[in-house]
Amino acid sequence: MHFVNRNLANPKQTSNIGMETTLSVEELNKREAEFDAKIAGGKTIEPKDWMPERYRKQLLRMMSQHAHSEVVGMLPEGNWITRAPSLARKAVLLAKVQDEAGHGLYIYSAAETLGMDRSEMIDQLLSGKAKYSSIFNYPTLSWADIGAIGWLVDGAAIVNQTVLAKCSYGPYSRAMLRICKEENFHNKQGYQIMAYLMRGTKEQRDMAQDAMNRFWWPALMMFGPSDTNSPNSADLMKWKVKLHSNDDLRQRFIDRTVPQAEAIGLRIPDDKLKWNESTRHYEFGEINWAEFNQVISGNGPCNKLRMKQRTDAHNNGAWVREAAAAYSAKKAASKK
Amino acid sequence: MSDNNHQWPIWEVFIQPKNGSAHEHAGSVHAPDGEMALLNARDVYGRRLEGVNMWVVPATAIVASTPEDVGPFFDPANDKMYRWPNYFKTPEGIKQIS
Amino acid sequence: MILNDALKEYCLRIADNSSILAHRLSEWSGHGPILEEDIAMSNMALDLIGQARGFYSYAATLEGKGRTEDDLAFRRDAREFVNRNLVEQPDHKDFGTAMLRSFLYSCLSYLQFRALMNSKDETISGLSAKAIKEVTYHVRHCGDWVVRLGDGTEESHRRINNSLEELWMYTAELFEQNEVDALLVKEGIAVDLTTLKQDWLNLVDEIFTQAKLTKPAEGGYQSSGGINGMHTEHLGYILAEMQFLPRAYPDAIW
Ligand SMILES: [Fe+2]
Ligand SMILES: [Fe+2]
Question: Where are any strands of DSSP class E within B1-98?
Answer without folding.
Answer: 10-16, 24-30, 53-58
